[in-house]
Amino acid sequence: MMDILRQNAQSWGIKIAFGIIIAVFIFAFGAGGFNGNTDPVIAYVNDQPIPTQEFMQAYRDNAEALRAQNPDLDSDQLQSPEFKKYVLEQMVSQKLLEAEAQKLGLSVSNNELSYSISLIPAFSDKDGKFDMNLYQSFLKSRSMSAATFEDNMRNSALISKLQEYVTMPVKPTEADARNLFDTASEKVQIDYYNIPSIDFAKDIKISDKEIEDFYKANPDKFTIPARSVVKYIAFTPEELSINESVTPEEIKAYYEAHKDSFQQEDQIKARHILIAVDEHGSDKDVAAAEKKIKKILAKAKSGQDFGKLAEKYSEGPSNSKGGELGWFGRGAMVKPFEEAAFALKKGDVSNPVRTRFGWHLIKVEDIRKAGQKELDQVKDEITTIIAQEKAADSITDKLDHAIDLLASGMKLDKVSEELEIAFKKSEKATVQNLSRAFGMTESAAQTIIGLPKGSSTDMPIAIDGGYILVEKEEDIPPTLSPLKDQKQDIESFLIQQRAIQFAKVKAMSVLGQLTNEKSAAEELKAIKKDLKTSEPFGRDGFVPGLGMNPKLAQAAFAAQKDQWLSEPFELPGGFIVARLDERIPPKEETWKTQKDAFMNAIFQQRANEVFSAFLTDLRSKAQVEYVRKDLLN
Q: What CA–CA distance (Å, rounded) separates 268 from 586?
């Protein structure tokens, strides 16, 4: 295995990618996944074989494609029986469709195939013309012959022809498209009255008995799971770079070669003072917070130290650092804060700025203009990059050496000394902790947790950026966290839950008054000053300012103008009572510009339905025999 790694790992990026592919493949099928069964066929479709090797290649291709699209994808999902079955079922469907196309006399000529390949953007030069060199480089990078690629393309084109043939009768009308457009583009806006749960929280008292009863009734919530302490050597560019030396000449050469990578956007260094107020807080609360921030502004303008004022008055998490925010560029802060901060000069203090977090004062301490970063600014960054690139080239050699030393009977701590790589100790960790901390699969983390105390892994475990060798030091059994450590959290949780219940009861009461003919006018008068109108929103359920709530959107679209919706709706922090304010039909000129797109959308939807039904019928008549079900487990 180490020889293979050494031969293929020519760069850090390739090493890591190769490690992922190997890890996925080994953990998916297992070293003993064949169980002595050497049948070369995984399944038969109407007596047509699907070779096991062909399935394995399709599985790897799909796994790599998904990983490329989503680097954060959980490896366990790619290793799941469901994913493997999905890949096999796609291959079964492909076999059925290819056979049906041939039965109907459909074919793809060489000219059609050549034309299809010439249209692939990856094979086109800067002028958009087909480039044979690019085509051959693509095949070489995937270790694929032109014949194999062209067979795959021909089969894909054949299935596309079959799909066109089957869906030929689909003819959507303009009326169908207009109905879809009207439904998709219509918007509504609502009037709503907010009942925040926080208004009730301050008056709620939770007894010690209630806290104790909750604690006893929910032991699973307070049980600390079994954990382990492990010691390990990490073979990653970051870890091994510590022993790499980088010369000033190398740093300068890298800087000159990568100047475009060291551009700087406008940045400012600032402090702030926050007086928190809920985004949906009452006018009274907002005004009280504004009054407080203005008093602090007066102190700042009188010459008092801004940092000390932040330590004393700010209600933000940076108060302990005097409101220090460090350097930041555009897009790092919420829009009102950003606009106010970047409008200031060095040394200026802003007027009060309102964001969803509350009222802020901002002081700009320094400014960096956009442009090229100087070498001194990025020297440390470049040193790290070069050191890690050098270290990446030594990973496989050092890992190979470490495995040889372990095989000779040397303990892991001595291997660490021999290779001059740090021997580190983890915190008390669960399977999930290890998986997240190192970027390994949960099955790999489970292997580590399952090690007997004092023993080591025989083979390296793949992690983000490299590998680790692990030794189990300690096992800690599950324990129940003491009530005294959980008391405050339980109390806060119970207060929050009860406050939400009170807010719901209040919302139901208000709605009841508003929908009662006798009390409606009086209740509306009582809440009118606090009644807000939302921005227009569509059927997707996203209500600007209120968040995602499909149920609220559905009720609003079903209501008549000025009709109160039939129930209160829970939102983060409370409940709202709402009525339909206005329906906003789509504009005629918008329909004219989008008609073709909606006609095509209707066609695609119905064509997919027809083709899906066609495929379902083929599957119902087909004889499919799964020979190697063990490969899906």
A: 43
Sorted by sequence, the CB contacts under 8 Å of residue 215 that are 6+ apart come out as 222, 483, 486, 490
Q: How far, in Å, CA of 505 to CA of 580, rounded?
A: 22
Average pLDDT, the chain: 87
Q: What is the pLDDT of residues 472-491, one digit of tens each?
A: 999 999 999 999 999 999 99
- Span 602-631, pLDDT tens digits: 999 999 999 999 999 999 999 999 988 887
Q: Are the C-beta atoms of 243 and 340 separated by less than 8 Å?
A: no
Find, among 274, 251, 399, the residue nearest to 333 by Cα. 274
Name the maximum alpha-carbon separation found in the chain.
90
CA distance 239 to 234: 6
User: What was the pLDDT predicted at 294?
Assistant: 95
Cβ contacts of residue 90 below 8 Å, gap of 6+?
A: 58
pLDDT of 25 reads 38
Nearest partner of 297 among 280, 275, 319, 282, judged by Cα? 275
Task: Give, as one character, the DSSP assignment of residue 629.
Answer: G
C-alpha distance from residue 425 to each of 59, 436, 472, 476 (Å): 37, 16, 10, 15
Tokens 């100087």 locate to 374
360 closest CA partner among 283, 292, 268, 284: 292
Q: What is the DSSP string of 184-216?
A: HH-EEEEEEEEEETHHHHTT----HHHHHHHHH
What amino acid occupies position 289? A
Place of tokens 């350097």: 327
C-alpha 627: how far from chain center: 37
Rounded distance, CA 177 to CA 594, Å?
10
Q: Which two tokens stand for residue 75?
A: 């490896």
Is residue 581 helix, strand or coil? Answer: strand
Burial class (CB in 10 A: 0-12, 13-18, 19+), 185: middle
Residue 236 to residues 259, 280, 424, Cα–Cα distance (Å): 26, 48, 13
- CA 96 to chain centroid: 36
Residue found by looking up tokens 């339980």 in the block: 490
